Amino acid sequence: MKKLLLLMSLLMVFILSCGGKKEAAQDKDSIKIGVIGPLTGDIAQYGTSTIDGFKLRVKEINAAGGIKGKKIELVIADSKGDPQEAISIFKKMVSQDKVDFIVGEVASTASLAISDFAQKAKVPMLTPTSTLFDITKGKDYVFRVTFTDPYQGVAMAKYVKERGIKNITILINTSNDYNVALAQAFKEQAEKDGIKISEEKYTKDDKDFKSVLTKVKAQNPEAVFIPDYYNTVGLILTQANEIGLKTQFLGGDGWDGIQTNFGAVAEGGIFASQFAPDDPSEIVQKFIKAYKAEYNTEPIIFSALGYDAGTVVEAALNSAKDLSRESIKEAFKASNIDNLVTGSLKFDENRNPEKKVSFIEVKNGKLTLKDKF
Questions:
Q1: Is 266 found in the same domain as 163?
Q2: Contacts of 21 (CB under 8 A, 6+ apart)
Q3: Which domain holds residue 304?
Q4: How far is 245 from 242, CA to CA, in rounded Å?
Q5: Structure confidence by residue, pLDDT tens digits, 11-57
Q6: CATH classification of the domain holding 333
Q7: Alpha helix locations (H) across the chain?
Q8: What is the rounded distance in angstroms from the CA atom of residue 207 to the CA atom of residue 209?
Q9: Is 315 a domain residue?
């Protein structure tokens, strides 16, 4: 009983120190934003690209005079993609660095881990890229720029139906929340639409997929849906090519980046996304030009979502009644923005954006816009 009371007391101390009082950014010389993401580790490309996109937009905002006469100051930390590391960083940023709010995390598991702390401490949190539905559910201080796993899963299933595909195998990484949630949403909608679904499973520790792929080949599906991240998908497609499995491969937004090292084996693959480098719109092309000038590399979807997070932040801070956390939260909630690289944004009741889904095809080693749905 004494241990329980001690733990409850410590939690209350943390909550009070983080969010029990209003943090008045208007009394400071700058607006301090904590940025959390994986800059090293297996998904470092996602973290680096997202944070680079956000940094670019913040640089533009500061160059234009900042927000209400204040410059934005960033406190950036590497979570290594580890949820526990993300929690430790969050606590330090709020209690020691005294950030006004958080932009991050990048990976869904890490965002889910810190979202409960953000809600309890009443610290606004905006994740640019995390798609797991439960991150924002029931948490009015937590928002996201990207669409959710169920949203893109349903959209992909409807797109498949329109293409007349009637027989699909799903490869499911049972160790990955993103993969499982996306696969489930796709499966439910596809079965509603009369599409025959088969499943094969693997785990995060698997590197040899040939036995699973041999089973898939025997099923002779019209398409294979692999809702995993590009590095794992690349290994699967490489081995599928080696055993002669030829079919239409499909995926979710985690495929973005596959063209870097796996363009040849991913040729013809189609995945759901929110950004296409060959989209002719002025907003998209202006962003690409600025990103390439800043970093001397091509942006990916994570870069675009990071950049758009900066635009969402700018709009919210400019419209907020004041720069307290409560006012920033309310300003995020009221967001209604048309000029984003990844489309317009207006939050639903769970603080998730409703967007069109872009379907991207890997063609000649590049990502090309095939359709919007």
A1: yes
A2: none
A3: 30-147+280-356
A4: 8
A5: 444 444 444 444 444 457 899 999 999 999 988 999 999 999 999 99
A6: 3.40.50.2300
A7: 2-19, 44-63, 83-95, 108-121, 149-162, 177-192, 210-219, 230-242, 258-262, 282-295, 301-319, 325-333
A8: 6
A9: yes
Kindly state whether residues 240 and 333 are assigned to the same domain. Answer: no
Report d(CA 207, CA 308) in Å as an integer.
Answer: 35
Same domain flag for 196 and 343: no
CB-based contact 318:285 (threshold 8 Å): no
Beta carbons of 152 and 354 less than 8 angstroms apart: no
Question: Is there a single domain that holds both residue 289 and residue 235?
Answer: no
Same-domain check for residues 290 and 319: yes
Burial class (CB in 10 A: 0-12, 13-18, 19+), 262: buried
Structural domains of the chain, count: 2
141 with 45, same domain?
yes
pTM for this entry: 0.83
Instruction: Collect all residues with Cβ–Cβ distance below 8 Å to 226 and sequence separation of at least 6.
Output: 170, 171, 233, 236, 237, 249, 250, 251
Looking at the fold, whether 140 and 167 belong to one and the same domain comes out as no
Identify whether 372 is part of a domain: no
Chain segment 182-209, per-residue pLDDT in tens:
999 999 999 999 999 999 999 999 999 9
Domain membership flag for residue 19 = no
Q: Hey, what amino acid is at 268?
A: G
> Which residues touch 286 (CB under 8 Å, ≥6 apart)?
none
Do 227 and 284 reside in the same domain of the chain?
Answer: no
Q: Report long-range pairs for 228-231 (Cβ below 8 Å, ≥24 apart).
A: 228/171, 228/173, 228/176, 228/178, 228/179, 228/254, 229/43, 229/46, 229/176, 229/178, 229/254, 229/255, 230/254, 230/255, 230/256, 230/257, 230/258, 230/260, 230/262, 231/42, 231/43
Q: Which two tokens mark 367?
A: 């990502």
